[in-house]
Design brief:
mainly alpha; 60s Ribosomal Protein L30, Chain: A; two-stranded antiparallel sheet
């Protein structure tokens, strides 16, 4: 648009026969060109803002995709570990079945078996059958426990999706679900009083865990790196115990199946 404006101004400067009416018309055209130029500038700025917002949204989606990919890799690894454990138990069960069959064959081949010998063989067979049943029950319990832990972790992460990852972590280690809350969110230094933000997070955790009454819950208290000793707390161990108690009492508000002290 600038060359048009320059041409219009040049025409005004070098023409000595321009009437007042034409001059006013040229000024109007120039003003319109200026307004149109401003509109283009505003449109370009809005376009840049939209582009920036879109780029931020794309970056967020990419980060979410990477997180889901990492979570899928973790789930696949855990599933493979469970399959390996199950295969090992199946091998042990097959070994006991084979031994059981061998004993039965030997018993059938014996032409004369003393009463004491027959009783011993019977007891051995019963022990093997009991052990086989124990292995089957153990396999079922392990599979159920791992499935329960994985389901609990997914529900917890879904409930705590709006909480900063640096303040809350949820993970499974050796079949145990660990929920870690940062001390900076839970307590002020030297205090066992739970913050309002932490109380909200603990309430969300309690509402999820409330559906898993068969679980055992262990609470470990945080302590300060700064030594403490006053009329209320003898030392940092005392502070840690009081903080753990504060967390338990907060959980009790939303979990009726946790017994009172």
């Amino acid at each position: 648009m600038k060359p048009i404006l320059f041409f219009a101004l040049s025409l005004f400067l070098f023409s000595s026969c321009v009437s007042k009416k034409e001059f006013i018309a040229m000024q109007g055209s120039r003003d319109e060109l200026k307004l149109e130029l401003e509109r283009y500038k505003i449109a370009a700025e809005n376009c840049d803002k939209d582009k920036s917002l879109l780029q931020n949204e794309i970056n967020g989606l990419r980060a979410m995709l990477r997180e889901k990919e990492n979570e899928l890799i973790t789930r696949n690894t855990e599933l493979q570990n469970e399959r390996n454990k199950y295969a090992l138990i199946e091998q042990q069960l097959e070994y006991f079945k084979t031994n059981n069959a061998n004993l039965l064959d030997r018993l059938a081949d014996l032409s004369v078996v003393s009463k004491t010998g027959a009783e011993n063989i019977k007891k051995s067979l019963e022990a093997i059958n009991e052990q086989s049943k124990y292995i089957k029950d153990l396999t079922t319990a392990i599979q159920r426990k791992d499935s329960l832990a994985l389901n609990l972790v997914m529900n917890l992460k879904r409930s705590l999706a709006d909480v900063n990852d640096e303040d809350v972590t949820v993970e499974v280690r050796k079949g145990v679900v660990y929920i870690s809350l940062s001390d900076r969110m839970l307590f002020r230094s030297g205090s066992a009083e739970i913050s309002a933000q932490a109380e909200s997070v603990l309430s969300k955790i309690a509402k999820v865990v409330n559906d898993y009454k068969e679980l055992d819950i262990l609470v470990e208290g945080h302590t300060d790196s700064v030594p403490i000793a006053n009329a209320c707390m003898a030392d940092n161990w005392d502070l840690s115990a009081k903080r753990a108690t504060s967390v338990v009492r907060t959980l009790q508000k939303s979990m009726r199946w946790i017994p009172n002290a």
